[in-house]
């Protein structure tokens, strides 16, 4: 694919736009100077109302277990109410703001991205689970919230343990926790595990390359060459592991960045177009309208007029 179907590349002489970015934060971890970690479990016991401003943590994924209480999770211009027991799943790079109501009891599982990738490779449904931010109710089946709470507690104990095999134990419990979320989300199951794992690895590599190059207007063949696979293999892997075409995955990444800048940034639509590699703001507008259903200016106005704008992400 070329961006003739997506975007026209920005000439070198195009003016540089001043950019206001979404905060990318490093997460608090106890004793970071004395303990290497790949999973961290924290119990948040703040009293009263608690609000987090829009931010992202690209090096980590998070599962927030809301044992009781309620609030609003805001994601890329959409407000999602939640009430415990439920799990809030926040993939890496997900821009989010959270507004917890009074005395929400919550547990936060933070997973380092390279380790999360390893765990996700075990099951295709894990990749699907982390493909989008989610609010997963745990009230459909009797005892689901209690079971999830028990898993979280066991995971916390294992993470903090110095016993023999605590790394293996941590992985087993984390896998069980994610599997429960998959089943509560009712993601489709699949067979042919060996081939699917290979497809998952290929798509994970493709996603990383998209993150590095989505503003460069690369032909799809260039991505395939960097991965040392054919276009046919790349398309087949994407269809199997992501249920999207490679072109659609690139489109989605461009749209995600466009939305973030429209909601949180101060750049004009034209500046955003140049930033994303479009030489023509009108073409960017047509592309955005086709993918989102609204012009960029309409999307910006609608997103910023939402009642919970202060915690939008």
From TrEMBL:
<dbReference type="InterPro" id="IPR018060">
    <property type="entry name" value="HTH_AraC"/>
</dbReference>
<dbReference type="InterPro" id="IPR009057">
    <property type="entry name" value="Homeodomain-like_sf"/>
</dbReference>
<keyword id="KW-0804">Transcription</keyword>
<dbReference type="InterPro" id="IPR037923">
    <property type="entry name" value="HTH-like"/>
</dbReference>
<keyword id="KW-0238">DNA-binding</keyword>
<protein>
    <submittedName>
        <fullName>HTH-type transcriptional activator RhaS</fullName>
    </submittedName>
</protein>
<dbReference type="Pfam" id="PF12833">
    <property type="entry name" value="HTH_18"/>
</dbReference>
<dbReference type="InterPro" id="IPR020449">
    <property type="entry name" value="Tscrpt_reg_AraC-type_HTH"/>
</dbReference>
<feature type="domain" description="HTH araC/xylS-type">
    <location>
        <begin position="204"/>
        <end position="302"/>
    </location>
</feature>
<keyword id="KW-0805">Transcription regulation</keyword>
<dbReference type="InterPro" id="IPR014710">
    <property type="entry name" value="RmlC-like_jellyroll"/>
</dbReference>
């Amino acid at each position: 694919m070329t961006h003739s179907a997506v975007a026209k590349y920005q000439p070198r002489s195009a003016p540089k736009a001043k950019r206001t970015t979404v905060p990318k934060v490093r997460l608090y971890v106890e004793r970071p100077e004395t303990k290497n970690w790949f999973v961290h479990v924290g119990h948040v016991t703040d009293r009263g109302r608690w609000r987090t401003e829009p931010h992202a943590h690209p090096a980590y994924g998070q599962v927030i277990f809301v044992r009781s209480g309620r609030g609003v999770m805001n994601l890329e211009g959409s407000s999602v109410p939640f009430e415990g027991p439920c799990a809030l799943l926040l993939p890496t790079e997900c821009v989010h703001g959270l507004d917890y109501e009074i005395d929400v009891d919550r547990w936060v599982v933070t997973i380092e991205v390279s380790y999360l990738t390893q765990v996700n490779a075990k099951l295709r449904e894990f990749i699907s689970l982390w493909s989008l931010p989610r609010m997963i109710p745990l009230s459909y089946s009797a005892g689901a919230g209690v079971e999830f709470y028990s898993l979280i507690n066991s995971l916390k104990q294992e993470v903090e343990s110095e016993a023999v095999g605590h790394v293996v134990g941590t992985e087993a419990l984390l896998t069980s926790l994610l599997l429960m979320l998959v089943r509560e989300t009712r993601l489709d199951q699949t067979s042919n595990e060996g081939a699917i794992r290979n497809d998952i690895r290929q798509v994970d590599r493709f996603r990383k390359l998209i993150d590095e190059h989505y503003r460069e207007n690369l032909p799809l063949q260039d991505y395939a060459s960097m991965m040392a696979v054919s276009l046919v293999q790349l398309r087949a892997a994407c269809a199997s592991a992501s249920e999207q075409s490679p072109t659609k995955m690139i489109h989605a990444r461009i749209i995600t960045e466009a939305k973030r800048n429209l909601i949180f940034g101060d750049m004009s639509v034209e500046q955003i177009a140049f930033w994303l590699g479009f030489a023509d703001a009108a073409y960017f507008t047509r592309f955005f309208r086709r993918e989102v259903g609204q012009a960029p200016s309409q999307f910006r106005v609608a997103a910023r007029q939402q009642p919970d704008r202060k915690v939008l992400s």
